[in-house]
Amino acid sequence: MLQKAQSARDEFHSLLFFLIHHTFILQEQSTWWPYLNLLPTIFNQKNAHPLWFNTDQLDFLAGSDLRNRILNYQKKVSQTYASLLNDPDVVRALSPVFTFDHYMWAHSILDARSIWWDGKRHLVPLLDFVNCEASKDIHSVHESSSDTTGKYVETKARKNVLAGEQVFEDYGQPNHIYFLYHGFILDNNLHDCALIDDLSISSDGQVYSVGEKSRRRLHVNGFNNLNPSFCIKSGASSELDNLANFLRIKRNIPGDNIGITDDICQEVVDVIKLRLRRYIVDNYTDEEI
């Protein structure tokens, strides 16, 4: 089964199947049990990870594009599990422990605790217990890299740590990523930004009235799909420029890769105002917003 997942280049599920097998089938007989026994339980994850959030809990995110992203995340995981139930190799190898709760647990563990190097995810005992802490330096992010032999991996802290102190890392991600995959956010996160995630060009949008021309424009402007997301932050104009470039295509306005100029400025302002209004209860005017 692992070979099948690997041959399909599905490294995520290779690791997920391995995790389920060792945690729920081998258990104490697994070489990795001392580590696996320290991982958060299903109960822990159900009470902390957004993958399990119900609609009442998600309503606290009303107004945020993150709410729909979490719903899509939950839907995708559920659909993948349903598809895997039709795979006889998976059912044969993991039955009867291949339950929805076990799959959700393993998925959330990998999403929250994977360590990346050489473009691949790994579970690394103890290293994944290092908690996240916001750094005062935006470039102060941990790194993991393998040596020339490929047998060893080194992770370097970005600052000196005294004996007896807790070791922290700056994961280097915006808060919507932390919340989506880990269930927490950080104050004073230098990597944080405002997520804009619902500006897709639908089948009834203007882009289809000009067809292939607009698809070429999407490619020319660096977009590989009809619903890109944008991460807007203070002092960084590049994402605002990307947003402006996309809005030109969405509104069928001429001009490629020119960023914010007078022709699109009001469109960008309207997008920002709409998001601010989602969070504002009182009746503020556009000028006050």
TrEMBL record:
Gene3D superfamilies referenced in this protein's UniProt entry, alphabetically: set domain protein methyltransferase, domain 1
InterPro entries the record matches: SET_dom_sf, SETD3_SETD6_MTase
Gene Ontology MF, one: protein-lysine N-methyltransferase activity
PANTHER family with a match to the protein in the record: SET DOMAIN-CONTAINING PROTEIN, UNCHARACTERIZED PUTATIVE METHYLTRANSFERASE
Annotated protein name in UniProt: SET domain-containing protein
Source organism per UniProt: Proboscia inermis
